[in-house]
Amino acid sequence: MLFLGGDQVYPVILGRRLGYGTVIYAEWEGRWHRWVDRMACMTPGIVEAAPASFRHRCEVIGDLMADVAPSRDEEDTLRQAIGLRPEHTLVGLMPGSKANKLSVGLPFLVATAEAIQRHYPQARFVIPLAPLLTPEALARFADEAQNPDTRLFEGTTTATLVAAPDALPVLRTASGLEITLWPHHPAYDLMAQCQLCLTTVGANTAELGALGVPMIVLLPTQKLSVMKSWDGIPGLLANLPLVGDAFAKGINTIILRRIHQEGRLFAWPNLWAKAEIVPELLGLIQPQTVADQAVGYLTQPDTLAAMRENLRAVRGPAGASARLAAIVLTVAQNRRSR
Fold first, then answer.
1. What are the tens digits of pLDDT across the range 82-130?
2. Do 107 and 149 meet the contact criterion of CB atoms below 8 Å apart?
3. What CA–CA distance (Å, rounded) separates 37 from 173?
4. How do beta strands 170-173 and 178-182 pair?
5. DSSP 130
6. In b/e form, how buried is each residue of 198-237, taking b as 16+ CB within 10 angstroms?
7. For the chain, domain boundaries
């Protein structure tokens, strides 16, 4: 049984119940070492954290997502689909997938994109749609009439959905800025084409890091009640019906105060590196502030190149998929010979 993500207890239970060999791919930490056959680890730190008596079962294989790379023909097809010319610079916008994130994240990023293009007109913008999120559903969060959170930030503007039969859908603002919506999944080929991504916290920071895509990670706190993804009891309280928003606001106020004091990191590449290799902007940030920093990166290719190299260094060696396949075959052969 090969397990690639989620709660590692499930393959342990199923493997023991069905008598299967078990291989777990561990991106962040390994668990249940005693009851698995092999642990394929993304980074050496996961092996070092394992109990000494079970480290022989662990092997560093690198990042599986690092093996996803589009061919040159695929790159050309993608750029044509988006309408990118050689002089254009593609900037990815990743506002989240759930309503509580989109209500804040989408208007924030639309306003940021407008501010970027005023100072860097060759920028073009794309949003890779999350699975199960339609263009129509996304567009509602960019409409001031349907989303009052658009008024939380300076410079926010309404964007409307424009969909032509033979073209990708776009969000268009009153100033004429167009943000392409990319509906295909997974969007690794698209993400790999971005020179810079502006993203919320979450699994997308791990995906971007694995692809070596420079990013700015955003956590605006103008609406504390939308932050409900904490673990344990705080997360349970924040998601209670009716009273969850009030709990979330109080919990987040306390947690954010501790974060500022302790210098806690959120983006997965920073957690892997145990240092801030991609910038994290947390607090009462405004679109213009983010735009200024983004333009600074876009006009300094050497800085972006250094960030890209740091991301590649922390994700582990290439060829992870082949090493994982070899581990799975070894476990299967050992089971067969018993």
1. 889 999 999 999 998 888 889 889 999 999 999 999 999 999 999 999 8
2. yes
3. 54
4. antiparallel
5. P
6. bbbbbebbbbbbbbbbbbbbbbbeebbbbbbebeeebeeb
7. 2-62+316-337, 72-219+286-314
CA angle (71, 72, 78) in 5-degree steps: 90
Q: How far is CA 237 from CA 97, 223, 234, 245, in A?
A: 21, 17, 5, 9
- Backbone torsion region of residue 306, taken as left when φ is above 0, otherwise alpha when ψ lies between -120 and 50, otherwise beta: alpha
* CATH no., domain 72-219+286-314: 3.40.50.2000
- CB distance 214 to 312 below 8 Å: no
Residue ranges with strand state E in 129-237: 159-162, 170-173, 178-182, 196-200, 215-220
**Could you identify the residue written with the tokens 């990118």?**
84
CA distance 20 to 86: 52
CA distance 90 to 118: 15
**Burial (CB count within 10 angstroms: exposed 0-12, middle 13-18, buried 19+), residue 265:** buried
pLDDT at 224: 53
Q: pTM (2 decimals)?
A: 0.78
Pairing outcome for strands 2-3 and 23-26 = parallel
